[in-house]
């Protein structure tokens, strides 16, 4: 396991471990004084009185907040100390929904989803449904964390999983600073083992994408420029290949919010996001075609709202009473963190949106 | 009037220089935008050159802007400092190479 310097907000018993305190912070200060417009006011100005979903395309399921890493900016506040893990019973409820829903993409996330004891069983069952794009968000180091995970690349291949993994930078220094000492070397080893069986290779159908998120209080630059730089550096230095890079903006919640406040960057960062507001990005924010399911089966507009405990505003708000038609009628719940999805070229779990 | 010559907020007002002379201001911004576009040099390489020149010009606005720009492009702190050293080396080299003038003059006047 990589050396972990930081602890989860929950472990530290930080005030920000509570979602209501995060939401309060996001509603007060510059947004209360009117120095910056609220997200609601901003989108109303672009012609969106309410944010409504379109057709459901992606079902994102969070298998638990337990993780072998404790990255400094994790929006899940994940870590080895988190005990929230999806039970097999809830997984069965999820499978029923997957079979009947119109979603073409299934996206498993965490924490480290592989740490859920029923992860492999769930993947095997879900793969039988024949979903078009089956994503597992793997943090890479988990593949090298313990012998029992060494065969994960083969397991992914067997079920034609689309692997999506975070790598904040192509240098060791920047990656380890954000994700923990030793993470870079382990991630490179894991990428090699994925490449070795065909993942990420130029003509291969075994999809391997990387996720980039900035290491500090700034936005990502152009996604395709970053992809080119990542590809060039990883190829030259390690002979590593991958398919696409998804550039994601850090949203001001959880550990990243804690960092922004502690480093006195909060107001400047929010100003940057508000100034970079792009009305075109509102059209494609991911909550409009995605639903997020938490480890205990509740439904959310997105993974971020899940972390802020903002359940969907619908009579169908749990995987047990999933009703796609009712959900398509809901109003999406928003707050100032949403500015992270509409800044610049937009941001979602699938990268830029504009 | 603010009691400091430099105010970080003024950087955001850069675009307003067109208010007093629109035609020339617009031409400048067109030119500026074109210069920083991807060309034979990548936008990333141009950003590093800009950072080095920002230091030799000692322009706080440009240092602010191109530090931020570099971070967004994934430029590392080591790369940034190396770029500043390139600027500093040229600055000091430019000063030192002029000492050949001083030496020539000394040798002429003082044998
Ligand atoms: S690997 Fe992902 S889930 Fe785990 S701590 Fe890092 S960012 Fe959070
Ligand atoms: S944070 Fe969630 S709810 Fe807000 S705009 Fe982004 S995806 Fe939608």
Automatic annotation (TrEMBL), chain A:
Its cofactor is [4Fe-4S] cluster. One of its GO terms (molecular function) is metal ion binding. Residues 61-199 form the Radical SAM core domain. Residues 219-352 form the Arsenosugar biosynthesis radical SAM protein ArsS-like C-terminal domain. InterPro entries: Aldolase_TIM, ArsS-like_C, rSAM, rSAM_ArsS-like, rSAM_sf. Coiled coil: none annotated. Keywords: Iron, Iron-sulfur, Metal-binding, S-adenosyl-L-methionine. It comes from the Bacteria. NCBIfam families: rSAM_SeCys. This is Radical SAM/Cys-rich domain-containing protein. It comes from Psychroflexus salarius.
From TrEMBL, chain B:
Gene3D superfamilies: AhpD-like. Residues 23-98 form the Carboxymuconolactone decarboxylase-like domain. It holds the Pfam family CMD. One of its GO terms (molecular function) is peroxiredoxin activity. Keywords: Oxidoreductase, Peroxidase. InterPro entries: AhpD-like, AhpD_core, AlkhydPrxdase/COmuclacdeCOase, CMD-like. PANTHER family: ALKYL HYDROPEROXIDE REDUCTASE AHPD (PTHR33930), BLR3452 PROTEIN (PTHR33930:SF2). This is Alkylhydroperoxidase/carboxymuconolactone decarboxylase family protein. It comes from Psychroflexus salarius. The lineage of its organism: Bacteria, Pseudomonadati, Bacteroidota, Flavobacteriia, Flavobacteriales.
């Amino acid at each position: 396991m990589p050396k972990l310097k930081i602890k989860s907000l929950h472990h530290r018993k930080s005030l920000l471990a509570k979602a209501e305190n995060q939401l309060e912070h996001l509603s007060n200060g510059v947004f209360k004084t009117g120095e910056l417009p609220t997200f609601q006011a901003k989108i109303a100005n672009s012609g969106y009185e309410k944010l409504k979903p379109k057709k459901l395309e992606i079902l994102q399921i969070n298998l638990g907040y337990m993780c072998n890493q404790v990255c400094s900016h994790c929006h899940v506040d994940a870590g080895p100390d988190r005990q929230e893990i999806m039970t097999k019973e809830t997984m069965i409820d999820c499978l029923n929904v997957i079979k009947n829903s119109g979603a073409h993409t299934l996206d498993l996330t965490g924490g480290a989803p592989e740490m859920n004891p029923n992860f492999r069983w769930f993947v095997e069952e879900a793969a039988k449904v024949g979903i078009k794009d089956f994503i597992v968000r793997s943090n890479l180091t988990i593949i090298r964390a313990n012998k029992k995970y060494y065969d994960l690349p083969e397991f992914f291949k067997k079920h034609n999983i689309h692997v999506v993994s975070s790598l904040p930078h192509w240098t060791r220094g920047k990656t380890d600073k954000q994700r923990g000492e030793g993470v870079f070397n382990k991630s490179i080893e894991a990428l090699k083992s994925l490449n070795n069986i065909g993942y990420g290779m130029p003509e291969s159908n075994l999809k391997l994408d990387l996720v980039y998120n900035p290491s500090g209080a700034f936005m990502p630059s152009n996604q395709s420029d970053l992809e080119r730089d990542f590809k060039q550096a990883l190829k030259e230095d390690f002979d590593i290949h991958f398919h696409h890079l998804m550039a994601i903006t850090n949203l001001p919640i959880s550990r990243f919010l804690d960092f922004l406040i502690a480093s006195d960057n909060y107001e400047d960062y929010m100003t940057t996001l508000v100034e970079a507001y792009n009305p075109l990005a509102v059209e494609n924010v991911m909550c409009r075609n995605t639903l997020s399911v938490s480890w205990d089966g509740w439904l959310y507009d997105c993974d971020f709202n899940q972390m802020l405990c903002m359940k969907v505003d619908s009579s169908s708000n749990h995987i047990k009473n999933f009703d796609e038609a009712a959900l398509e009628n809901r109003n999406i719940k928003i707050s100032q963190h949403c500015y992270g999805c509409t800044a610049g070229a937009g941001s979602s779990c699938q990268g830029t949106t504009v | 009037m603010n009691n400091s010559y430099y105010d970080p907020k003024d950087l955001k007002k850069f675009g307003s220089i067109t208010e007093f002379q629109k035609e020339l201001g617009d031409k400048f911004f067109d030119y500026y935008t074109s210069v920083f576009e991807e060309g034979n040099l990548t936008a990333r390489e141009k950003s590093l050159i800009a950072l080095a020149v920002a230091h030799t010009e000692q322009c706080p606005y440009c240092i602010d802007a191109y530090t931020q720009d570099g971070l967004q492009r994934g430029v590392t702190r080591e790369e940034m400092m190396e770029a500043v050293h390139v600027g500093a080396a040229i600055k000091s080299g430019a000063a030192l190479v002029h000492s050949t003038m001083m030496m020539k003059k000394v040798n002429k006047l003082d044998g």
